[in-house]
Amino acid sequence: MTVMIPSPSRTASQRLRWTIADGWTITRRDLVHWARQPVQVVVGLLFPIMVVLMFGYLFGGGMSVPGGGDYREFLMPGMFAMTMLFGIEGTYTAVATDVSRGVTDRFRSMPMAGSAVVVGRSTADMLNAVLGLAVMVVCGLLVGWRWHGTVGAALAGFGLLLLLRFAVLWVGIHLALVLRNPEAVVAMQILVWPVLFLSNALVSPETMPGWLGFLAEANPLSATVSATRELFGNPGWGGDSWLRQHAVAMAVGWPVLLIGIFLPLSVRRYRRLDR
């Protein structure tokens, strides 16, 4: 006769510690994978540097900054924000690959916290994002970018950039858990580029057709770019629209909204993968 022993009940603080401990185990698993395959990480770090050099030195001579100012100081906040979306498809593909190969099922059969896998994966991605942002800041300083506000304002700008990454990350994790197929997730990579370029990172929305310019201005990426240019004291497009006048609020509001929607959906979807 098999006797089923019920798991002991846990308090809220015990469940939180359990989730953090299990999530960190998954994070270390992903970090070990990256350490054994460093080429992928190195290429991910070098690609945005190449884009900076291309726009800063090949195209920069033909660019005019609204109201005057150094083009590379105008460019870098947009590149910082775009870097938050570069390489994120690797996380989506890894999540879908684990699902398709049954790795996630094995995790779910273990006595682990229900959200540990997605939390661990997101933590590893955010560590990678911090590293990528640090490399980009060094690159920006080398090409002549500077911030002109206070240290607190600069730190707030970097915080908004990482907040954007965290929000987009949960959107992708949810879609990866829904699609499950790595080949299908690859199609999501194509959607990253319209989001990048349909923004104010490189081109003013005023140069676009009216409806397209509105979409570009309402893009969460545009809000983060405008907010960081403001916090760093770098030149921007200007304008008197409500979205531009409240860029910092929108740079907080958009990611918080996306996290509030897709983080719970991702955890719920993970727990219901067998249905």
Explain this structure.
The chain is mostly helical and 275 residues long. The protein has one domain (19-55, 69-271). It is 74% helix and 0% strand. The protein has twelve helices and no strands. It has helices at 12-36, 38-59, 71-83, 88-100, 103-108, 116-143, 151-179, 182-197, 210-218, 220-232, 242-245, 247-271. Helix 2 (38-59) packs antiparallel against helix 3, helix 7 (151-179) runs antiparallel to helix 8 (182-197) and helix 10 packs across helix 12 (247-271). The chain starts with 11 loop residues before the first helix and ends with a helix. The model is unreliable at 1-7 (pLDDT under 50).
List the helices and strands and how they pair.
Layout: H1 12-36, H2 38-59, H3 71-83, H4 88-100, H5 103-108, H6 116-143, H7 151-179, H8 182-197, H9 210-218, H10 220-232, H11 242-245, H12 247-271
Helix pairs in contact: 1-6, 2-3, 2-6, 3-6, 3-10, 4-7, 4-8, 6-7, 7-8, 7-10, 7-12, 10-12
Whole-number mean pLDDT: 83
Radius of gyration: 21 Å
Gap between N and C termini, in Å? 30 Å
Helix amount, in percent?
over 70%
Q: What is the chains' assembly state?
A: single chain
Unreliable stretches (pLDDT < 50, length at least 5) are 1-7
What is the structural class?
mainly alpha
* CA-based shape: elongated
Q: Give the amount of beta strand, in percent.
A: under 5%
How many domains, as an integer? Answer: 1
Tally of alpha and pi helices? 12
The biggest sheet amounts to: none
Tell me the series of helices and strands, N- to C-terminal: HHHHHHHHHHHH
How many strands?
A: 0
